[in-house]
Amino acid sequence: MNETALQGERPWEQPLWKPAQGQAGVLFFLVIIHVLAAIGIIFFPLPNWKVIVLSALVAVLGGIGTTVGYHRTLAHRTLKLNKYLQHTLIFWAMFNGSGAPASWVAYHRRHHSCSDTPDDVSSPKHGGFWWAHLRWLYQSPLADEKRWCSDLGTSSYKFWTHAQAPLLLVSIFCGLPLGWPAFFWLGAIRLVYSLHNQCLVNSVMHLGYSEEGDSSKNLWWLGPFQLGAWGENWHHNHHSAAGSARIGWYWWQVDVGWYFIRAMQSLGLASSIKEHRLS
């Protein structure tokens, strides 16, 4: 199957268990973390506060890595980051299960280029809620990185693609030295929590239509659950001005990623920041 959703080639009509070519590893990873998370919840439903705080901290770092490092910096080029800070954010995004930067950016740019069409890699309009939420991760064809993100073809980004599998193994097992509750909570439970918070952007935030005619939504109630990625819940703002590093446009629209960007700017670690200005 090629990248374009030609007539009759509807990946969302495939059996749930059938991954696209080259995506079997993604399906295996999704199954493993969900099984481990379920076991962890059953046997260790409430770990001590240190484990909870540490798990939340890693999730926050991963959220910032995804929203600032992947989304606003690499995918949309709305700012420039110090290269060491940028690769630190890439590390935390990958540690949190967001995948390698090139694949993430390729999928996201493709999404924006054909939003709500059959070619949209994660559209609930064509594939339904579960397709947009989870199934596309392992059942959609691989995005063409040469087409969508040739700017990420340098060795520094290719390194992260090669490092993805070992880094995910470390992410799953990182809590084991601290005991079994930490193994499950700092590993699989955190990964599942972060995964579904990211996936809600593709599914829930694209259900229905706005007055402007696209399906993207702002959902205030989702923000607190996104931790470091709080701000991505203003998704209609983003689709209205994808070239803006600021996604929460009003003072009451909490945007943790924007606050982080401004803090890095004050330290001289972020520059060339593009911001949407309200008329």
Account of the protein in words:
The model is unreliable at 1-7 (pLDDT under 50). The chain has 279 residues and is mainly alpha-helical. It has one domain (11-196, 257-271). It is globular and about 55 Å long. Strands 1-2 form a two-stranded antiparallel sheet. It has helices spanning 24-43, 49-75, 83-95, 101-113, 124-127, 129-139, 145-148, 155-173, 180-202, 235-240, 256-266; strands spanning 80-81, 270-271. The chain starts with 23 loop residues before the first helix and ends in an 8-residue tail after the last strand.
Number of helices: 11
Assembly type = single chain
Please tell me how large the radius of gyration is: 18 Å
Strand runs, count: 2
Widest sheet: strand ordering: 1-2
Q: Secondary-structure element sequence?
A: HHEHHHHHHHHHE
* N→C terminal distance: 45 Å
| Gross geometry | globular
Mean pLDDT: 93
Show unreliable segments: 1-7
The main β sheet shows up as: 2 strands, antiparallel
Short description, anyone?
Mean pLDDT is 93; it is low at 1-7.
Draw up the topology in text.
Blueprint (H helix, E strand, L loop, with lengths): L23 H20 L5 H27 L4 E2 L1 H13 L5 H13 L10 H4 L1 H11 L5 H4 L6 H19 L6 H23 L32 H6 L15 H11 L3 E2 L8
Antiparallel strand pairs: 1-2
